[in-house]
Amino acid sequence: QVQVVESGGGLVQPGGSLRLSCAASGSIYRINLIRWYRQAPGEQRELVAAVTSDGITNYADSVKGRFTISRDNAKNTVYLQMNSLKPEDTAVYLCNVWAWSTSSTLRDYWGQGTQVTVSS
Predict the structure, then answer these.
(1) What is the distance between the alpha carbons of residues 100 and 47, in angstroms, rounded to a whole number?
(2) pLDDT at position 103
(3) CA angle, corner 38, sides to 36 and 41, nearest 5?
(4) Which among 72, 80, 85, 69 is positioned nearest to 14, based on CA atoms?
(5) How does pLDDT run across 33-69, given as a tens digit for each residue?
(6) Is residue 82 pLDDT above 90, yes or no?
(7) Which of 113, 90, 110 is nearest to 41 (CA)?
(8) Terminal CA-to-CA distance of the chain, rounded, Å?
(9) How far is Cα 30 from Cα 81, in angstroms, rounded to an integer?
(10) Which of 8, 17, 26, 43 is 20–30 Å from 84 (CA)?
(11) For position 84, what pLDDT does the model report?
(12) Is the pLDDT reported for residue 1 higher than 90?
């Protein structure tokens, strides 16, 4: 089994910064693609950022220039540095990990999410 745990959320004022972490553990052979999503109340889940195993990144237009995704392959951890936060960034942030398990199965795994609230 593979477990995914997000952390780093919290309450921050507009213009502030947070760094989210997504740590994968368990029966992992190799992690491929990792994506950060967010979901605000009453809204559809939105893809925020993604990073491939080769380090290629992709961002939603709404966060380009403000958010940076990075990964530490040795720790099976991905980070989302969020700067210049806006109230509209308020949401539960969820990490989605595509990984090969040690039993040669490729599938995706979700964490429980971490709440980010941007408010004065």
Answers:
(1) 22
(2) 87
(3) 165
(4) 85
(5) 999 999 999 999 999 999 999 999 999 999 999 999 9
(6) yes
(7) 90
(8) 40
(9) 23
(10) 43
(11) 98
(12) no
